[in-house]
Amino acid sequence: MTHHALRTPDSRFDNLPDYPFTPNFRDVEAEGMDPVRMHYLDEGPADGPVALLLHGQPTWSYLYRKVVPVLAGRGIRVIAPDNIGFGRSDKPVRNTDYTFARHIEWTQSLVTGLDLRDITLVAQDWGGPIGFSVLAAEPDRFARVVAANTILHTADPALADRLDFAVNGVGESRVLLEEALVDYLLYTQRAEELRASDFIAATASTPPDPDVLAAYDAPFPDQSYTAGLRQMTALLPLTRNDVGARTGRRTMRALEQFERPFLTAYSDGDPATRGWESIFQERVPGAAGQPHVQILGAGHFLQEDAGEKLGEVVADFIAGT
After folding, report:
1. Residue 156 known to be catalytic
2. Lowest CB count within 10 Å: 6, 111, 133, 276, which one?
3. What ranges do the domains of the chain cover?
4. Which residues form the AB hydrolase-1 domain (predicted)?
């Protein structure tokens, strides 16, 4: 079966504020799909230690524009891809072309295709579930992890009363869900028009400039380009039976064996992920004794509110381990 994909015109990315980076592209593969083209940034010295910066919904590598120069300036090679369906990457037009497994496979395909090693994974939002699962599949490639405002979808009953945003099984067959999370999921499926900038503006601690918000919308000239944007939220596992929750539990078991350095760098203004920093610190052996940080004055997209600070945290962590 042919899976048709759209490609956002290059002109949409001309003269974006504070995003002077050279685009790079590579074909990536996932089961049941034709190869698609993934965009990524490759900045800093080619022989430096690698930082892999992964974004989530509804952003793209533009989110890391303040982080990249800090890391590159500290001698770190920065690889920052756009998930398929986002940014300058190809955008399959059918919602069902996007699965959690394929997002993992596409990212793994980039990592193995570029033969990245000694990787420091920097994961925010869906970048955690995707990136941690790539780590579980390719553990020898990863040297350390920085978890920043991210989660791992498991719906585990043990999460009860541990998270600001509840998603946990109760007893044998019930689930406790945060109302705001359900509202968000339903909105993304029902809204006639979905704009990435609306979510950035709603969660930023400091309102971004209009030209910055426009840059978040640049990948999506019209709604025909937004299948991946919509579907990523539909992929949120809300029950233990969800295939994504099973993947999350398998990935958590891998993290529970991960003894290399693991740092949490969560902001003080993100109820959607609050509580997960403590869970990762408890469950990941490599988190023991690390200088975990809280980044002040930042919302869910802490790269937007405190990108330079996050960059320094990552660079210091690489230098110190």
Report:
1. no
2. 6
3. 5-320
4. 52-166
